[in-house]
Amino acid sequence: MAMLNAGFDWSGKRVLVTGGDGFIGSHLAERLLREGARVSVFVRGNSATGTVSFDLKNTRHLRSRFDRILTGNIASADAVSLMKSVRPDVIFHLAADAYVPTSFERPFEVMQTNVVGTMNVLHAAMELGSVERIVCTSSSEIYGTALKPSIDETHPLNPTSPYAASKVAADRYCFSYGVTYNLPVAIIRPFNTYGPRHTYDVIPKFINLALTQQPLTVYGSGRQSRDFMYVDDTVEAFLSMGSHPKALLETVNFGTGIAVSVNRIAELVKELSGSRSEIVHVEKRVAEVECLVCDFTKARELFGWQPTVPIEEGLRRNIQWARENLRTRPSP
Known about the structure:
This protein has one domain (14-328): Rossmann fold (3-Layer(aba) Sandwich). The chain contains 10 helices and 13 strands. It has helices spanning 23-34, 78-84, 100-105, 107-128, 162-181, 202-211, 231-243, 262-273, 297-303, 311-325, and strands at 14-18, 38-44, 69-72, 90-93, 133-137, 185-190, 192-194, 216-219, 225-226, 228-230, 251-254, 260-261, 279-282. The strands form 4 sheets. The chain has a 7-stranded parallel beta sheet, sandwiched between helices. Helix 5 (162-181) links the parallel strand 5 and strand 6. It starts with 13 loop residues before the first strand and ends in a 7-residue tail after the last helix.
């Protein structure tokens, strides 16, 4: 496991995780509790009945251990006062509409959540004046198709979807607020994260299809490749950005530095799960990025961070979790 910032103690720290019931957010919240932090989470609420309600999907087992569960719409005006009410020392902002195809059909909604929601987080921190660190979650999607073999932080930002464009805007708002208002911002750009509790994107979809003996559907040629990082490594990256003094006002990529094609993922999932599923190809998706591979040199130099879970081991863990949870979880 990668080393945490030596000497940093999370014990007693008031930490707010927006999107804390999401895939990565739930793993991060769980880890912070293990480290002794006082964790509050901001989760999406449903007000269709006239009263705001919520249903924890990934953190039911942690509910009694959270300091507070904030419920609402991260993009609404009252989100600012809600976040201020827990007086966090550190904010990890992960709340987002992160499913790329949603942005094709509902780009305004995605923009509201991802851009206005981020601005609400920044303004809550500004008004408090006591927040030690705001970790803003960006995305490797902001780079578009790579212009060189691996992507470092100097790569041009060429978003190819409305989702990616919204993350570019949020990313740069965070940086500008750090410079303009002296906010203690750190911007994390994780590459494709996978692992238990993830319910969309290619790996969880392939795993669920393989375990139910359904065809694994590959869009286009399948030669498009991604840098797949196991969620435990991603959580370590977030903790580094939330604690290390060298992360302040920095933008840092985190990934494995290894490209794996969608075809290879399909083959590995089929092999490791012992599935009889057929691999089939369908028409290419719109706005498809052909290659995303991380250059994590900066993360290694700043924090000594490096990935520890190879793709085969990560897939084994993910498949085992899916076997144990498939009956109780909806298909993506």
